[in-house]
Amino acid sequence: MALTVTMPQLGESVTEGTIARWLKQPGEMVAKYESIAEVVTDKVNAEIPAPAEGSMGEHIAAEGAVVAVGEPICTIETVEQGQTGSAWHQADGEAAAGNGAAAEEPAEQVQPVAPEAAAVQPAAVQAAAAPPAAAEQAPPPVAAAVGAPPATEPGGGGADYHLTPAVRMLVREHEVDLAQVEGTGLGGRISKKDLLDYVQRRDSAGHAPGPAPAAPAPPAPTETPVPAVAVAAEPGARPAPQAAPGEGDTLTPLTPARRAIAEHMVRSRRTAPHAWLMMEVDMSGVARLRGARRAAFEERYGAKLTYLPLVARAVCDALRQFPTLNASWSDDGLIVHRDLNLGIAVALEENLIVPVVRNADRLSVAGLAVAMQDLGDRARSNKLKLDEIQGGTFTLNNTGALGTVLTQAIINQPQAAILAMDAVIKRAVVVDDAIAIRPIMNLGLSFDHRINDGLQATRFLRKVKDLLETIDDTGSLM
Amino acid sequence: MPTKSYLEAIREGMRDEMRRDERVMILGEDVGAKGGVFGTTEGLQAEFGEWRVMDSPLAESCIVGVCIGAALYGMRPIAEIQFQDFILPAVDQIVSEAAKMRYRSNNDWGVPMVLRAPFGGGVHGALYHSQSLEAMFCGVPGLKVVVPSTPYDAKGLLISAMRDPDPVLYFEHKRAYRSIKGEVPDEEYTVPLGSAAVVREGRDIAIFSFGMVVHMALEAAERIAADGFECEVVDLRSLRPLDRAAIVSSARKCGKVMVAQEANLAVSIASEVAAIVAEECFEYLDAPVMRIGGPEIPAMPFAHALEDFYLITPDKLEAALRTLAAY
Q: pLDDT tens across A215-269, in order?
């Protein structure tokens, strides 16, 4: 039996996905739940699990193809294909292999599969009998015998009766002319026993069934692979001159993730008018707190006490006070989010990903540190689940870890703002009319000017600054 | 291998496990000095003391509630409900607490409790000592329900149930206690929860049943074998979870299916087995599924003639099998 595997729904608003890589080639055996393909949407790599055990059939969608949710991507020949399928056939020593009709196994009940590694939505699966194309290419030779006679010319008593599913299956399998079979069941019905008795008599008398038809050819691809979507040009804008590789240049094909990032960045810049402002934060208190507590903290929680969770904690408090920064623009009105899901940008070698700490405002500094370290580790080992990289309502970008002092980040759509933390650097600053050496961090806020004006954005940033500057080494990490 | 009765096998299962695991304790009405109303726990208090074989008040909700608490505290309690008919006051504890504990504690807590209760008719017990209430519990996720039909399975399933980390309802057919005997090893062994057993192989009709009805199905199968019809008799043993693979395998093999039980049929184990067969074996069926069970009346009648009318008998099964064979 061939199962058609379709593009799963990979998120509430996701309508399509790109086949990044096939993990199973046609003909390869797959175990149930084993990953068969990597799919990319927006910024995530999700793996599609096999809905059933079997062998990989045809790749309907090629690598790089963009496939709409619910459209077929491949077929899987389940293990029952080519077997006789039921114990009593095997017991009778009857081989139905090669009989085209035998492929019409009963449709297995296929439960949508909940993948474990990547908790994407269940792969939608259609249980399909032999595809029509295949059926036409290799018609079962017994079709005539099965189709016409039984109702009009019943064997045995001539009563009007139905054939049970079991008898129908055996008729196809053993190529039986029903007119030859005597029915002994209720009202002259041909029972399974009648049919098997007939087949045994017939076959032992030397009547061999007709030549086995060729195995059904795999169905022809019904779709040509859809080309990967190109980064959309700004509508109405003059297209930018297309770069072409010159002599000595190399052309590296775009990975699906690269394409997704590019598309997202262009879309964000195009849709949200970015405004940017920056404040300096005196991190003396935070640095003292960290110095005094980091060893004990790491021992207790198994996570590093960096500046990131402390800043994240302050950001959560400030966002609760200025909720329009935890919001999204829509044409119907401003959506102020109830939940505060804090995205943390994580730089990877080839791309970037923004795992999300759900309900971050409910977590202590310790809770944030543990959650962020876990998400960061799994981002780097490509083990994030889909729901861990979506649903963010505000993003924090710790570029300072790489040494930056001035960062203008692009807003992660559809959020209202993104906050970049620059490096904490000791600088000479004026404190109480004296020059002092203080660890200073720049906080740069990019915000969507449709949603907030400078007033709200500044008040928010000021709040973050105040919260951080009033921390001292007795501050609570819980 | 020594031959033991169904009741002796149950007692031996409890006794051996109590010797091996001091967390195992029994709580129930008259389980101590009296040794249980059927004698199932006879001698256990003498061996293990009053703290491990404890007489309870006549309050089933208390028996089960205390056992849940003991299980959460680290014990491996066996709650004995004197007759399954009396389980109803404890249903809230079983369904609302025991069944849901693991789920509601996010997998932090389980209730490793066994609840034993005799069920079934044929002993002139009438309304309040004859019911088969298994279906009430088989639709409750979080519970496991087993019904042994042989002494071998009685001991093996009971040991598995006692070692399971979650609540297991272990229903004993009271008519089997002394009437059914079989070989039971002295040593320790287990019969896995969730697995059915093919107790007679055949190719024409698959009969699914459990409890005392299994023995009647075997007898009826022998009678029609004389006429060339071979029945495959499957003892379901575990009613939740049902052994779906075993059901599908035998149903597909035979093409004709009978499900027989003592309880009335509406929303029952027989209904569930028939549904599985319809879902997974349609193309293999050579006859409509036939269900045999008690009538849709409120209770087991007291009058002996009416009790006979209610109960499954080998004669009734034989007649039904002949109808199915002739289809």
A: 444 444 444 444 444 444 444 455 566 788 888 888 888 888 888 889 889 999 9
B301 & B224 share domain: yes
Q: Are residues B36 and B106 in the same domain?
A: yes
Number of domains in chain B: 2
User: Which phi and psi (to 5°) does residue A244 adopt?
Assistant: -125, 140
Question: Which chain B residues are Cβ-neighbours of A105 within 8 angstroms?
Answer: 283
The better pLDDT of the pair A87, B93 is held by B93
For residue A41, give the nearest of A394, A409, A387, A416 by alpha carbon.
Answer: A387
Mean pLDDT value across residues A343-368: 91
User: Looking at the domain assignment, is residue A336 inside a domain?
Assistant: yes
Are B42 and B15 in contact, with CB atoms under 8 Å apart?
Answer: no
Q: Report residue A325 CA to chain centroid gap.
A: 29
Report the CATH number that the domain containing residue A10 is assigned in CATH. Answer: 2.40.50.100
Distance between CA atoms of A69 and A46, rounded to whole angstroms?
Answer: 14
Range scoring the smallest mean pLDDT among A76-85, A355-364, B191-200: A76-85
**Residue B237 to residue B216: CA distance in whole angstroms:** 15
Contact B278, B252 (CB under 8 A): no
Tell me, yes or no, whether B189 lies in a domain.
Answer: no
Distance from CA of B230 to the nearest CA of A (A): 12
Does the beta carbon of B108 lie under 8 angstroms from any beta carbon of chain A? no
- A100 has pLDDT over 80: no
A478 and A366 in contact (C-beta within 8 Å)? yes
Q: How far apart are CA A331 and CA A327, in angstroms?
A: 13
Give the contacts of B11 (CB within 8 A, at least 6 positions apart).
Answer: B40, B41, B42, B43, B44
| B191 assigned to some structural domain | no
- The sheet carrying B231-235 orders its strands as B197-200, B231-235, B205-209, B257-264, B290-294
Residue A144 clears pLDDT 70, i.e. is over it = no
State yes or no: cis peptide before A355, omega within 30 of 0.
no
Q: What is the CA radius of gyration of chain B?
A: 19
Q: Write down the catalytic residue from A264, A274, A337, A449.
A: A449
Nearest to A185 among B203, B204, B327 (CB): B327
**Enclosing H/E stretch for B27:** strand B24-28
Residue B141 corresponds to which amino acid? P
A187: nearest CA in chain B? B327
Total domain count for chain A? Answer: 2
A433 φψ region: left (φ > 0), alpha (ψ -120 to 50), beta (else): left
Known active-site residue B129 = yes
**Partner A, chain B 189-218, Cβ-Cβ below 8 Å:** 203-204
pTM for the full model?
0.52
ipTM value = 0.73
Looking at the fold, whether B123 and B211 belong to one and the same domain comes out as no
Interchain proximity A169–B284, CB inside 8 Å: yes
**How far does the CA of residue A441 sit from the closest CA of chain B (Å)?**
41
Type of residue at A163: L
Domain CATH code at residue B150: 3.40.50.970
Q: SS3 for B294? A: strand
Residue type, A153: E
Tell me which residue has tokens 């959460």: B72
Q: Tell me, yes or no, whether B30 and B55 share the same domain.
A: yes
B89: which 2 tokens?
Answer: 């006051």
Residue A251, exposed/middle/buried by CB under 10 A (0-12, 13-18, 19+)?
A: exposed
Domain residues for the domain of A319 are 257-469
Residue A385 CA, distance from chain mean position: 8
For B72, the domain range is: 3-183
Give the number of other CB atoms < 10 A from CB of residue A205.
7
Chain A residues whose C-beta is within 8 A of a chain B C-beta are 86-88, 91, 105-106, 109, 164-169, 185-186, 189, 191-193
Could you report the per-residue pLDDT of B33-61, keeping only the tens digit for each? 999 999 999 999 999 999 999 999 999 99
